[in-house]
Amino acid sequence: MGQVMIAFLVGGAICVIGQVLLDFVKLTPAHVMSILVASGAILDGLGLYDPLIDFAGAGATVPITSFGHALYHGAWQEAERDGLIGLITGIFEVPSAGISAAIVFSFFASLIFRPKG
Question: Which residues constitute the signal peptide according to the record (predicted)?
Fold first, then answer.
């Protein structure tokens, strides 16, 4: 099976989990997002998220679970280096590039596209 198909199936499976939680468990979108972020952090803490990224590529790095992975990864790396202060600052260091990119690209998109009202 090709790498693109694996990424599609894994990313789709993560999205299906979120949709099932929305439709059948009747959680709010904020609850589902929090569960998926926490799941990514837990899977990274158990050492399972990096192998998932190696296997699925973008199928594991694009969904919101990857944000939990990045938060945990950053906090753990900085905690090992700087102790308790690193634990706090690390959650901002690793995911900051993705968040910054989202803000910059959103700004440029707002300059190009106008909402219809």
Answer: none
User: In which domain, by residue range, is 31 found?
Assistant: 3-112
Q: How many domains does the chain have?
A: 1
Predicted TM-score of the model (pTM): 0.78
Cα atoms found within 13 Å of the Cα of residue 7, Cβ hemisphere only: 11
Q: Would you say residue 49 lies in a domain?
A: yes
What residue type is assigned to position 25 of the chain? V
In a domain, residue 117? The reply is no
pLDDT of 64-115, one tens digit each? 898 889 888 888 888 888 888 888 888 777 777 777 788 888 889 888 988 7
Please indicate, yes or no, if residue 106 is contained in any of the structural domains: yes
Nearest-5° Cα angle at 74, 71 to 75: 85
